[in-house]
Amino acid sequence: MNQISPMAFVHPEAQLGDNNIIGPFCYIDRNTVIGDNNVLQNGVTINYGARIGNGNEFFTGASISAKPQDLKFRGEDSICEIGNNNSIRENVNISRGTASKGTTQIGNNCLLMESVHIAHDCFFGNNLIIGNSTKFAGEVTVDDNAIISAGVLCHQFCHVGSYVMIQGGSAFSMDIPPYVIAGKMPVHYCGINIIGLRRRGFSRETIDLIHNAYRLLYSKGVMAEGIEEIRKQLPETEETKYIIRFVENSQRGIIR
Known about the structure:
The chain has four helices and 28 strands. It has about 260 residues and is an alpha/beta fold. Helix 2 (about 205-215) packs antiparallel against helix 3 (about 225-235). The longest helix is centred in the C-terminal third of the chain and has 14 residues, at about 205-215.
């Protein structure tokens, strides 16, 4: 049975699963689907097009599936998907998609801290930690297990790789490849995320391999030459394949 405050508004067309807690002054619009065991603290807004999984907690002032802040948006039908077991803190704003992709997507087990903004058509993976007041423009992709500190500004269309650590207060408009620390102004490569990789169970040999891959990649003035050196000198593993694929597919170029 759901626990819905008499001071909350739930549209009669909204679809709710079981065992949800809906606090006072929450607003749940039509064309919304909410799974089981979610908690909406007071003053949470679930807008048109939200698709929410199970076991999430939304804190005061969070606004999910908000109308995109995109002048090209013409009211097209679009959605915002939130996975399972996420903690979405105070005043987080997540926009729904536009005609570009149709969906904004957040994975599972993410912590989005206070006042994070995620714009239209972003695709965020699992196990992310995103610090207070960090802002993402439209169509950004963030792969699994990234840590993005507070006050970070991310340009539209950027891609952030897995297991990265981005320094607080950074602003970037290029892609950040996997397994690295990125920071300073302008943002650049500051080495691999050794501590983060150890905490995630990467072996010493794998960490050394990743370090050597970036040593070779950045040793050349042209990224294609660095990739060729990786292929020549290092064994093919999931990690080296991911690095090569990420760099080769980068649309905005990677930080140096």
